[in-house]
Amino acid sequence: MEESWIIDAATCKACGLCGDVCPNRSIHKDASGKMVFRSDRLATCIRCGQCMAVCPTQSMHVPGFSYERDFIDLPKQTGSESLFFDLITSRRAVRNFQDKPVPRELLEKIVRAIAFAPPSFTPIKTELVVVQNTELIRRALPHMIAFFDFMVGAMKNPVMQLMISRRAGREKFNVIRQHMVPLMKTRLPDLKAGTEDTITRGAPAMILFHANRDAENYRADAYIALTYGFLAAHALGLGGSAMDIIPPAIERSKELRAMFAIPDTNEVVASMIVGYPKYRYQRAIKRDLHSVTWL
Ligand SMILES: Cc1cc2nc3c(=O)[nH]c(=O)nc-3n(C[C@H](O)[C@H](O)[C@H](O)COP(=O)(O)O)c2cc1C
Known about the structure:
- The chain has helices spanning 17-21, 50-54, 67-70, 81-90, 104-114, 134-154, 158-168, 170-193, 218-235, 246-252, 254-259, and strands at residues 6-7, 27-29, 35-37, 60-61, 127-131, 205-212, 239-242, 266-275.
- The protein is α+β, with helices and mostly antiparallel strands.
- Among the domains are: 6-70, Alpha-Beta Plaits, CATH 3.30.70; 88-139 and 197-275, NADH Oxidase.
- A four-stranded antiparallel sheet has the order 5-6-8-7, with helices on both faces.
- The longest helix is centred in the middle third of the chain and has 24 residues, at 170-193.
- It starts with 5 loop residues before the first strand and ends in a 20-residue tail after the last strand.
- Bound molecules: flavin mononucleotide.
- Flavin mononucleotide is lined by residues 92-93, 95, 241-245, 285.
């Protein structure tokens, strides 16, 4: 692993690709035509690795990176329109699962896929808890139900409503008021009676996405990571879905935080459930975006 910023003059062909792909334009040609790092910009390098990934002669050396450890050779042809569209059109939010555990090696592949999700800044802030212990999810469910029971009650009180809205922020509060509370009001009797699980959906496995509350852009990063996660699950013959109903319950419950090993410093941003799908969908669903403006 290189510990200093080096462009190997013996192999560099001064093609300039590194300078063009660098988000901060931290690499340029000097007066003699040699590619060099700009010392005035190195402090703001986000360590994205793009200069090393694009260099045809492996001449770039960025501290902390090694060609052997941190890069993978790509096939000549990457990306296939039909494969991509087949994958995204056939994906569904899966909420019904076979009674079958997900092998660890498949969960590891999902984790690998998630690590390829683009981060706003490196190092990556997203942290995962991969819950392969189905029993733990089942034990967590009553605590989640207790949280929603409390929340539905609290939302009847205007003072509590104000406190929740201050704490949650406008976007999350709208989700709580317009979706979670009405949904939970109808579901709670059956959830409490144990006749349905409309929270964890009987999933055999679950992945939690959390991050330090002081990290930058961690929520956006977590949702992009989550998207990679459920697409990877689908590609692997599994099914799953984002589950925004789960994070607030874990976030606000001491017991659940402990059960899922969430550090006090961290926010549980997102979650996905995963398992073998019980049903096969016959067709994709076409939807229109809210608006598309062409300029
Ligand atoms: C960020 C996000 C959060 C979601 N949270 C939940 C949830 O809490 N419970 C649930 O049943 N589905 C949840 N879903 C699944 C959506 O309801 C689902 O994607 C939507 O109904 C469209 O169905 P499709 O994914 O099959 O196209 C979530 C999806 C996303 C993207």
